[in-house]
Design a protein that fits this description.
mainly alpha, Four Helix Bundle (Hemerythrin (Met), subunit A), 2 domains, two-stranded antiparallel sheet
Length: 251
């Protein structure tokens, strides 16, 4: 039973992505967004379940990437296209296609990597998909206002370039609870509470924070390098050495 569970989760990811495409073409934009979100959740589960059950394989990895291409490269770009970016004509078509192409390249580069690390090289494609599909959540399923259509087309272009960049983004698997795990758990509880109360704003805020992590890391590194080296502690005044014959100590 445990052997087919990761594959079932991966195919569930594909089904959610395919359904998101259908919903986008039928103008059910908010449903399409939640289907992309469901695909991201399933994508995060299948690999973990495979590792826990000891059923990882090359076939499973390739299947996962093919399903990700549908759910996170094709579905979000079509959603953005139907929500208004397609109204820009060739420019809108090009922006959506570039997003899809860079997403597929990102997946191919990930598969070709011979060594893994604690960071992602380039923006992870599920995060990029959330950025591309975000207007459906912010507008509650309504089309993108005409004044913001060029803005979102530009966002698609920037997100596409981030996927194929060499910027390093933290992987959630690299997070450590440390000696005081209750602080991390409290932070996650606060994030969950904020998401439940303000879902349409909390999730974009979290995504924006994740997008800025390379810049924040670089700023912290420069700040640490600019600090002057800490001088070693100066020894205190030397104790006076008494003459050898003096005996003032109280025995």
């Amino acid at each position: 039973m445990k052997g087919w569970l990761p594959g079932a989760l991966t195919l569930g990811n594909l089904m959610a992505g395919y359904a998101a495409i259908l919903m986008a073409t039928e103008h059910h934009y908010l449903i399409a967004w939640w289907l992309v979100f469901a695909a991201a959740v399933l994508d995060g589960l299948d690999g973990r379940v495979a590792r826990l059950t000891g059923t990882t394989s090359g076939f499973g990895g390739e299947l996962d990437s093919l399903c990700d291409a549908v759910s996170f490269a094709v579905a979000p770009s079509l959603l953005a296209f139907h929500m208004g970016v397609g109204g820009l004509g060739r420019a809108g078509w090009a922006a959506c296609f570039l997003f899809t192409a860079c997403g597929v390249i990102r997946l191919a580069r990930f598969n070709a990597a011979t060594t893994g690390g604690e960071d992602f090289v380039g923006l992870p494609i599920p995060t990029a998909a959330a950025v591309a599909a975000a207007p459906a959540l912010l507008t509650h399923g309504e089309p993108i206002p005409p004044a913001f259509v060029p803005v979102h087309a530009a966002v698609l272009l920037v997100t596409a370039l981030l996927m194929v960049s060499r910027l390093r983004y933290p992987a959630f698997k690299s997070l450590r609870f440390g000696p005081k795990p209750y602080r991390v758990l409290a932070l996650w509880a606060a994030i969950l509470a904020g998401f439940l109360a303000f879902a349409e704003w909390m999730l974009p805020a979290l995504i924006l924070g994740y997008l800025l992590t390379p810049a924040v890391r670089r700023w912290r590194a420069r700040r640490a390098a600019a600090r002057p080296p800490q001088a070693p502690d100066e020894p205190g005044p030397a104790a006076e050495i008494e003459p050898a014959g003096r005996q003032d100590a109280v025995l």
